[in-house]
Design goal:
This protein is mainly β. The strands form six sheets. It has a nine-stranded antiparallel β-sheet. Strands 6-25-24-27-22-21 form a six-stranded antiparallel β-sheet, with no helix packed on it. A four-stranded antiparallel β-sheet has the order 2-19-4-3, with no helix packed on it. Strand 21 and strand 22 form a beta hairpin. The chain is globular, with a radius of gyration of 23 Å.
Length: about 425
């Protein structure tokens, strides 16, 4: 049997032991094998049917079996604290984070950019993770946000309440808020990016005039089949709650779900399967055509957060400036590079780097990229061996104290736009 089921937002049914799933009743008086029925609700009970997300879990013990939570201080860079200074409109860029050693994924996470919080139900954070140790004897749950992991080097083997999800560079994983999980490292180390989404859950964007196919297709998403741990050794449960980390003792592994059914689950997606849409005539379409997932806001068409990628693709537009043009955007943009090079930056933006261009801050290609694209003899050209991403948000993103203190923060980033020549009007006078 495959370790995964395919589809996005579907109702799945899966059991690790035959007969563990009840038939016709979600919470029977006597579940099979003495299991406990427990519902995990990702939305309010009364959310519209199309938006309602919940799953029924049939487990060895209720998750209520744990001690009182105490403050957890083992992951100091997980703090999304903002500096006590006014927000700045400056463009910022960070070089790749130095390799992290001797830590697991939770203790090795650094939140770099933030807006909103769980108490408002809106906003995101963007950060780095780095780890060289498995999570042993402990699990994590984020009560505030769903988590989007973007591996850059090294795979992550997520052991979750719903089953196993192995995610490699070039793939992404989304873990729902409130779900318990641990991370193992098949390659011995892993580094990448992590996004916390406090707003509406990520979903596929509407396709509009594109039609019924394109971008990320439902069939290419994968969710785990049931798998469980029957482990009576003591564990810790680390909980991010209202922006702070807490820890409680659990007398057993809480990853003990024998069967589950529902439409709330972790999932993964291979970015290489993205069906890129672009022009075959002229002009440069908006980057919204590269949206993989969106978290909508209460304003139609203006996202709480969009996850956008810039994958390998053909460029064929005639009489067209093909890299991203100079622009100022109402949305705020955080950008990272998974592999290769980004076509609007000739240097300074290596895999693992991070940049921030907040609302209405002017940005675009650097001088070398602009000149090369302007002078090019336009022929069909494939941008290959690259994968960049962007997290857009309707609200400004602020760098955290950790980000501003990071030695990876580049000084003089503004200088990449120095040296552009003045346009030549000849004898034309205003």
């Amino acid at each position: 049997m495959s370790a995964y089921q395919t589809g996005f937002g579907n109702h799945f049914s899966t059991e690790a032991v035959a007969g563990a799933l009840p038939i016709g009743r979600n919470s029977p008086q006597r579940p099979a094998f003495g299991l406990y029925a427990e519902q995990l609700s990702g939305t309010a009970f009364t959310a519209p049917r199309a938006d309602n997300r919940r799953s029924w879990l049939y487990r060895l013990r209720p998750t209520a079996l744990h001690g009182a939570y105490q403050p957890y201080t083992g992951a100091p860079d997980f703090d999304a604290a903002l500096p006590d200074v006014p927000p700045s409109p400056n463009r910022l860029r960070w070089s790749p984070r130095a390799a992290v050693t001797g830590t697991d994924l939770i203790d090795g996470t650094a939140v770099m950019l933030a807006n909103g919080d769980a108490t408002t139900g809106a906003g995101v954070t963007v950060g780095h993770y780095g780890a060289t140790q498995d999570m042993v004897g402990r699990v994590f749950l984020d009560s505030d946000a769903e988590l989007l992991f973007i591996p850059q080097t090294g795979s992550i083997d997520f052991r979750t309440e719903f089953g196993r999800l192995v995610v490699a560079p070039g793939e992404i994983a989304v873990l729902p808020r409130g779900m318990r999980w641990r991370a193992l490292l098949p390659d011995g180390a892993a580094h990448g990016y992590v996004v916390q989404n406090f707003g509406a859950d990520f979903r596929l964007p509407e396709l509009g005039p594109i039609g019924s196919n394109g971008l990320a297709n439902v069939r290419d998403f994968e969710v785990p089949v049931a798998a469980f741990e029957d482990d009576d050794t003591p564990h810790q449960c680390i909980n991010r709650y209202c922006g702070a980390l807490w820890v409680a003792d659990v007398p057993h592994s809480p990853l003990d779900v024998v069967a589950w059914h529902g439409n709330l689950s972790p999932y993964k997606y291979d970015l290489a399967k993205f069906n890129t849409i672009g022009t075959v005539s002229y002009d440069h379409p908006d980057p919204s055509i590269f949206t993989v997932l969106t978290s909508p806001s209460d304003t139609p068409g203006t996202a709480n957060a969009d996850f956008v990628i810039f994958p390998p693709r053909w460029m064929v537009g005639e009489d067209t400036f093909r890299p991203p043009w100079f622009h100022r955007n109402v949305m705020s943009e955080a950008m990272g590079l998974i592999t290769g090079a980004y076509d609007a930056k000739a240097g300074g933006f290596a895999p693992g780097a991070l940049s921030l261009h907040n609302r209405f801050t002017s940005h675009g290609p650097d001088l070398a990229s602009w000149r090369a694209a302007t002078d090019a003899d336009l022929q069909p050209h494939k941008i290959d061996n690259t994968m960049a991403f962007m997290v857009e948000s309707r609200c400004p993103l602020q760098p955290t104290k950790v980000a501003l203190a990071s030695p990876a923060l580049q000084s003089g980033y503004d200088s990449v736009w120095d040296g552009f020549p003045k346009a030549r009007l000849g004898d034309v006078k205003p």
